[in-house]
C-alpha cells in the first residue's frame, strides 16, 4: 500500500523484490577482524567539542565491547596518515553542519567492527549528539541480530540522544527515517539533482526502485531516569552491490556526471533531524505528524 503526501512517499507491505534480512550491506573478511586497535579520529565543530576530544584522548577513555581496544587520535592528526580519496571528508561534513547539538562531536574511523558499538558502549563518556562514522564495518548489525554488510561506498553512522518519556522512545526511529528521506531530498534540491524517490517501509527500512538500500537500528538503555538511545543508519550511496545505490540511480536520471557524497547526506541528515526531533519532543507526536501534512493510511 502506497501513501503519498506533497512531501513524502511511504511504502508499506506487501512489497515486491524483498531482500532477505540476512543479505548484508559490510565486508565480512576475517583478515579485517584483527587484534590491532581500531583508529578513532575525534573531531569537533567548535572549540568546545575539540576540548572534549583532547580530554578523551588524554584519558584513554574509549574502548570496544569485550575488551576491544581503540587508538584515539585528534582531527589534526588525520593528515599524518594516507587514506584513499574516498575516505570520509571530516572538514566537508563539519563545514556543512548547522546544528546546535547533533553531529557536532564526530568520531571517524576508516575501519571499525561497528559504529553502533562505539556509541552505545561508550555512551556515558560522550556528549549527547555524538556521531560515529566508519568507511568500512566488518561486524555491522541490523535488527534481530541480523548481519549488515558495509562495503566502501556505503554510508554508515550511529549517533546518541537522550529521552525521558519511555512512550516516545520506540517512535524515534520514525523521526530518523523521515530525516534520511528529507536529507536526500535536500541534497538533490541544493545540487540541482533529479528527484530520487527513496521510500520508507515502516518502521525502519529504506527502499529505492523496489530494492532495499538502507536501514535504521535504534537501541536504548535506561539509566538515571533517562533513556540512552543509540541510533544507527546504513545507506547505499556509492556501492552498487548487493542491491543498488543512490549514485547508480542518479546516473540513470542525469545527463551530467554528478554523484552524492556521504558527507553531504550526513550533514543534511543532522540538520533535518534536529528540526524534526525538536518538533516531535517539544510539540508532541500529533503536532509532529500534522506539521508534515501526513495524511494517514
TrEMBL record:
One of its GO terms (cellular component) is cytoplasm. InterPro entries: aa-tRNA-synth_II/BPL/LPL (IPR045864), Biotin_CoA_COase_ligase (IPR004408), BPL_LPL_catalytic (IPR004143). It comes from the Eukaryota. Keywords: Ligase. Residues 91-281 form the BPL/LPL catalytic domain. Signal peptide: none annotated. One of its GO terms (molecular function) is biotin--[biotin carboxyl-carrier protein] ligase activity. PANTHER family: BIOTIN PROTEIN LIGASE, BIOTIN--PROTEIN LIGASE. Belongs to the biotin--protein ligase family. This is BPL/LPL catalytic domain-containing protein. It comes from Gossypium gossypioides. The lineage of its organism: Eukaryota, Viridiplantae, Streptophyta, Embryophyta, Tracheophyta.
